[in-house]
Design goal:
Elements: E1 3-7, H1 11-22, E2 26-30, H2 42-47, E3 54-57, H3 63-73, E4 81-84, H4 90-101, E5 106-113, H5 118-121, E6 124-128, H6 131-144, E7 154-158, H7 162-191, H8 197-203, H9 213-224, H10 240-250, H11 256-268, H12 274-287
Parallel strand pairs: 1-2, 1-3, 3-4, 4-5, 6-7
Antiparallel strand pairs: 5-6
């Protein structure tokens, strides 16, 4: 049994706490929402943990994570470990690790995949940091990862920053896979050759080369709404796709699929696209092609 603190009890953090407790670990959780929190403050959380401590942070990336790390830099002691399991940019990890190292506190960055289904199915974990710190936290990782061989749901990706880098690339790949399924769905619907689109997609779940958990989730969505017309086609991006493309450019790695998927998300937010109005105007000018007038 391991005792640990967990900061951030949102959709993923809450389920992680439940999975860890089901595995027999003692988890002291803190969240600004008092209804789900076990403690009243970060100070209170630290006071409830026996040294040497392990604290896992699951708060939004960027400034919220940085503020939390700074706060723990003043609360934790030599020999403690802080884990950032949020979607932080890998370049932030070195700064966080250096801040904590000055206090003798270890730092691990963990890319976590599994979404809201992780409580039941387990989480894919990509870890960056010192081997000794990873070994100390391994009972936690073993409780969170899926059942089966460790190497199929867990990886020690490298030194500090490697875990979040691996998760960034993972999410970039996810962008491309999701976009491919989405385009296939639209083509099936538009062709009018296929009469039962949900049935075809469901039929891909076994025996085909495109079978996957993402496909299973698409089938689930189609079971609930066969034409997906209850939704607007507006898609946000949380940052990892952009960071993946930045790294592709920095390393001269062609990534046309991931870039197209990201730009498709940008396009989904444009109710009226200036670029496409320009394309329509050009087609009319050089070829006399028909155009649709605004408001007409």
């Amino acid at each position: 049994m391991v005792q640990m603190g967990l900061v951030g009890l949102g959709k993923m953090g809450f389920n992680m706490r439940e999975r860890l407790r089901a595995a027999g670990h003692e988890v002291v959780g803190y969240d600004r929402n008092a209804e789900v929190s076990d403690t009243t403050s970060l100070e209170d959380l630290v006071s409830k943990l026996a040294a040497p401590r392990i604290v896992w942070v699951m708060v939004p990336a960027g400034e919220p994570t940085r503020e939390t790390v700074v706060a723990f830099g003043n609360l934790l002691e030599e020999g403690d470990i802080l884990i950032d399991g949020g979607n932080s940019k890998f370049t932030d990890d070195k700064l966080n690790a250096e801040l904590l190292a000055a206090k003798g506190v270890g730092y691990l960055d963990v890319g976590v995949s599994g979404g809201i289904w992780g409580k039941e199915n387990g989480y894919g974990l990509m870890v960056g940091g010192a081997a000794a710190d990873v070994e100390r936290a391994m009972p936690i990782f073993d409780a969170l990862r899926p059942e089966g061989p460790r190497e199929e749901g867990f990886s020690h990706a490298g030194s500090v920053g490697a875990g979040h880098y691996a998760k960034m690339v993972h999410n970039g790949i996810e962008y491309g896979l999701m976009q491919a399924f989405a385009e296939g769905f639209e083509l099936l619907e538009a062709s009018h050759v296929v009469e039962d689109v949900p049935s075809v997609i469901k039929g891909w779940q076994r025996g085909t080369v495109v079978r996957s958990w993402l496909l299973d989730l698409l089938v689930r969505a189609l079971d609930e709404d066969p034409e997906l017309d209850d939704l607007e086609g507006y898609v946000e991006d949380s940052g990892e796709g952009r960071w993946t493309l930045e790294e592709a450019i920095n390393n001269a790695v062609p990534a046309p699929v991931i870039s197209a998927a990201l730009f498709a998300r940008f396009a989904s937010r444009q109710e009226h696209s200036s670029a496409m109005r320009a394309v329509a105007a050009l087609r009319q000018q050089f070829g006399g092609h028909a155009v649709k007038k605004a408001g007409g």
